[in-house]
UniProtKB/TrEMBL annotation, chain A:
Protein name as it appears in the record: formylmethanofuran dehydrogenase
Biological pathway: One-carbon metabolism; methanogenesis from CO(2); 5,10-methenyl-5,6,7,8-tetrahydromethanopterin from CO(2): step 1/3
InterPro entries xref list: Formylmethanofuran_DH_suC, Glu_synth_asu_C_sf
Taxonomic superkingdom: Archaea
One GO BP annotation of this record: methanogenesis, from carbon dioxide
Automatic annotation (TrEMBL), chain B:
Protein name: Formylmethanofuran dehydrogenase, subunit A
Listed transmembrane segments: none
Entry superkingdom: Archaea
SUPFAM superfamilies, per database record: Composite domain of metallo-dependent hydrolases, Metallo-dependent hydrolases
Organism the protein comes from: Methanohalophilus mahii (strain ATCC 35705 / DSM 5219 / SLP)
Lineage, top ranks: Archaea, Methanobacteriati, Methanobacteriota, Stenosarchaea group, Methanomicrobia
Enzymatic class: oxidoreductase
Sorted UniProt keywords: Oxidoreductase
Length: 269, 585
């Protein structure tokens, strides 16, 4: 695998849209050709080299190309958008829409990620080692079809609307989530190892959500089924006792959504 | 300022003049087609070499939803429609977004890129006429007009119930003038009024609440008034029960209602010289036949009912239809038929918007996705094409997608290619649900439309139907200098092997010329030509109008605005162009 190293070389004022930073674009290109790839800054189109020093060259194909971003890219949007193969490692915090509509390959963010990470993702792996904010793996605003495949792992916390409208794939959050996690979910799996605040699984019609920690305000359209122990979804394991609910009855007479809430943390339910 | 232009050596397709691919030159001066240019004029003329290319009049869309309150609601409720479909600004164009409900500027550019120069907004609620004209004001490239929604209007229902046809006519004339609109639109007659009480009407002889009038009486009355006044176009009908399995029977019966009404077009216009009589000869224009031709009794035994209706149309001379074809993919359903949109929202669980326009009409909006894997959608795709292929005479058919109900107008190239190529249809059959073949007759149709037929159903028929053939839809001397040049060599056309090529060629016309100006070239917008808004300025007996206005003013206490604020002044229109109707009075 051939590695291309990008090092931020300037302070960015207006955020840039850099969906060209992905193995699919870098593959088969020399250092100079990569430097000339175009990014948008507001209404202007500028070469990548205005924002990054480039070292190395692309591999023979996207599979053979890895990209290492050394530093903070919190004002760079859409890194790895629609990528199909290869690997991107970001040694810092990344901007909005990292891995948006990603189809394959792997992205590792060693710092935090801004909103809309993995939005409408279709395949591949996005691993955020820090925290992220809203709309992780969510549908774009107005749409009801979010992530449909692939896997997102967050080591830290997330905020609201995680997995909104997801139809497939897996989101695993090791920290806490806030509001409307899995809203309008119709497929796929969301696992929250920590706590959640409210409206978890609101208007869900399919798919599965597991919250191991405490849910502060429970979704009213959920109906209690029974208790289950030591859940296992292929390679994803959630140990302990869970209360199983189906829903959301607010949106359908026969909803197929399943919500597991950790028993110990939710004794009042 | 319109340039002088000479289009040389193109294969010309001009059905109103029975020109079928002949190699000819077309000359345009001062925005109009002229027989020839003098040597001096030729020196200053822009010459376009159309050798080996297809030349047609500019496209005319006689049914599209691109301006007004419901279109804007569609834009507001669909941010997701915009973010993947955006076009940056250029030195002469605005930027724009939106696939199924594009922003106003983008609508104009995208129509021009396809070779269209004229479009009619298919539903203008009277109270929203100002808004509609404001949006039309900002749509570049296109000559436009709008149809006034009158099928559930309180005044119309009252006058028709009382049998006072003269007052009804006076009301229509005054309303057209007041709201600067062009023709009569009738949507789910009597049914939308019932929707105010959460109900609908299910048959042509069911009376509605309070007014106790039937759809049949409204269709009868409106068509009678339309021809009594001599409006440019026939009544534009969106029939009852639209979108319900089995609705084809209602539609077929609706078409029989104006069978004996004699078409009468009483317009004071200067006619371009055409070989075929360009005047109105139809008494009813049924829109989006596909949506009005559902067979079966439920979604389980759903099937195409198109053939029954096309058989009827083939046997009659008073009907013209447009197809409302479904090209698959994203759509936004929007119509004055509030109850039908509610049904779609319940069926799909999708987001929904609904509006009652006071005493006049209503409407609804609901996003929709047509999937090749869905059995019903696949049959609908077949039905849209059946609508155009099973009617023998292309002078009775118009190609539309009921934009954006069946799909966005940017997919017209797909529909045109399906019509021209059986191979392309067969390829699609192999991708869609098998119901498309099992529950329609399309599989057995081997007809392939020619470029001449395409010019007929996208130019000549819509222009003639709408009473615009005096200046649109033909390349006759005196017609507007609106020309489309496609980079298609008719002598080398192979619709079996090369149909994919047609999709791009129709999507981006080589040249779109509007009033003698090159508006678009190969997908790029070259200039923003002058444009006009047409409306019908109808004269009626002054006494009748006075008596009618007394009623209207009396009932205006139920409106939320004052009578003086009701009309749309001419300043809302871009180049207002009245068509004088019924000048004898």
């Amino acid at each position: 695998m051939t590695e291309v190293v990008l090092t931020p070389n300037t302070e960015i004022d207006i955020k840039i849209e850099a969906d060209v930073i992905k193995p699919d674009e870098f593959a088969g290109k020399s250092k100079e050709e990569i430097e000339q790839l175009i990014v948008w800054q507001g209404p202007d189109q500028l070469p990548l080299k205005n924002f990054f020093d480039v070292e190395g060259q692309g591999g023979s194909s996207a599979e053979e190309t890895s990209i290492l971003i050394k530093g903070d890219v919190s004002r760079v949007k859409m890194i790895g958008a629609e990528m199909t193969a290869g690997k991107i490692t970001i040694q810092g915090t990344t901007g909005m829409k990292v891995a948006a509509e990603m189809k394959g390959g792997e992205i590792v963010v060693e710092g935090d990620a801004d909103s809309w990470a993995g939005t409408e993702m279709k395949g591949g792996l996005l691993h955020i080692k820090g925290n992220t904010v809203d709309h992780l793996g969510c549908a774009y605003r107005g749409s009801w079809k979010g992530m449909s495949g692939g896997r997102i792992v967050v080591d830290g916390n997330v905020q609201s609307q995680v997995g909104g409208g997801i139809t497939g794939g897996e989101i695993i959050i090791n920290g806490n989530a806030e509001n409307f996690c899995g809203i309008r979910q119709s497929g796929g799996l969301i696992v929250i190892k920590g706590n959640a605040i409210r409206a978890i699984g609101a208007e869900m019609s399919g798919g599965t959500i597991v919250v191991e920690g405490h849910i502060a305000n429970f979704t009213p359209g959920m109906q209690y089924e029974d208790e289950q122990y030591d859940l296992c979804f292929e390679d994803i394991e959630c140990g302990g006792a869970f209360k199983k609910f189906t829903g959301d009855f607010a949106i359908s007479k026969k909803p197929k959504g399943v919500l597991y809430a950790g028993k110990e943390a939710n004794l009042e339910l | 300022m319109a340039a002088t232009i000479a289009i040389k050596n193109g294969h010309v397709f001009d059905p109103l003049n029975e020109i079928n691919g002949d190699i000819m030159d077309i000359y345009i001066k001062d925005g109009k087609v002229v027989p020839e240019l003098s040597d001096a004029e030729m020196k200053n003329a822009k010459v376009v070499d159309a050798t080996g290319k297809t030349v047609m009049p500019g496209g005319v869309d006689s049914h599209t939803h691109i301006a007004g309150a419901k279109v804007n609601s569609g834009r507001l409720m669909r941010p997701e429609d915009s973010y993947k479909w955006n076009r940056p600004k250029t030195s002469i164009t605005h930027g724009g977004t939106g696939e199924t409900v594009p922003s106003v500027y983008l609508e104009g550019y995208e129509y021009a890129q396809m070779g269209y120069t004229t479009a009619f907004e298919a539903a203008v609620p009277p109270l929203e006429a100002r808004h509609t004209h404001e949006e039309m004001h900002s749509i570049p490239m296109l000559d436009m007009g709008g149809y006034l929604v009158l099928g559930n209007n309180w005044f119309m229902m009252r006058y028709l119930k009382e049998g006072d046809i003269n007052k009804a006519a006076a009301y229509v004339a005054w309303m057209m003038r007041t709201h600067k609109t062009y023709g009569i639109k009738c949507v789910n007659p009597a049914g939308v009024e019932n929707w105010g009480w959460g109900k609908n009407v299910e048959s042509l002889d069911e009376t509605n609440i309070h007014f106790e009038i039937t759809p049949r009486e409204i269709i009868e009355g409106l068509t009678e008034v339309n021809e009594m006044l001599g409006l440019p176009m026939p009544v534009h009908l969106h029939a009852n029960n639209l979108g319900h399995p089995g609705c084809y029977e209602t539609t077929k019966e609706s078409l029989t209602i104006p069978a004996k009404v004699k078409p009468n077009q009483d317009m004071g216009v200067e006619w371009a010289e055409t070989k075929i009589d360009p005047t109105k000869d139809k008494s009813i224009y049924l829109t989006h036949l596909q949506f009005n031709a559902f067979g079966g009794t439920s979604w389980r035994d759903f099937e195409s009912g198109v053939k029954d209706i096309t058989d009827y149309v083939n046997s009659q001379d008073h009907v013209v239809i447009d197809s409302g074809s479904v090209p698959f993919g994203e759509a936004t359903c929007m119509t004055g038929d509030g109850p039908s949109i509610h049904d779609i929202a319940v069926l799909t669980g999708s987001k929904w918007s609904n509006c009652d326009v006071e005493l006049e009409c209503g409407s609804g909006v609901c996003p929709f996705t047509y999937l090749k894997s869905n059995p019903v959608h696949s049959v609908q795709w077949a039905m849209g094409l059946e609508s155009l292929l099973l009617i023998d005479d292309p002078w009775k058919t118009i190609m539309t997608t009921d934009n954006p109900n069946g799909g966005p107008f940017t997919k017209y190239p797909n529909v045109m290619t399906w019509l021209m190529s059986e191979a392309y249809r067969n390829e699609t059959f192999s991708e869609v649900h098998k119901w498309a073949n099992d529950r329609s007759t399309l599989g057995g149709v081997s007809r392939e439309l020619s470029l001449y037929d395409i010019a007929t159903i996208t130019r000549a028929t819509p222009a003639k139907t709408n009473g615009m053939a005096h200046r649109k839809g033909s390349l006759a001397v005196g017609a507007d200098g609106d020309v489309t040049i496609y980079d298609i060599d008719p002598t080398r056309l192979d619709v079996t092997a090369n149909y994919n090529d047609l999709l791009t060629k129709f999507r981006y016309a080589d040249y779109t010329i509007k009033g003698g100006e090159i508006a678009a070239h190969n997908g790029e917008i070259m200039s923003i030509p002058e444009r006009r808004t047409y409306y019908s300025d109808i004269k009626v007996d002054a006494n009748e109008e006075k008596k009618m206005l007394e009623d209207v003013k009396d009932w205006f206490r139920y409106y939320t605005l004052g009578f003086e604020n009701y009309p749309t002044p001419e300043k809302y229109l871009v180049n207002p162009t009245p068509i004088n109707v019924n000048m004898e009075k």
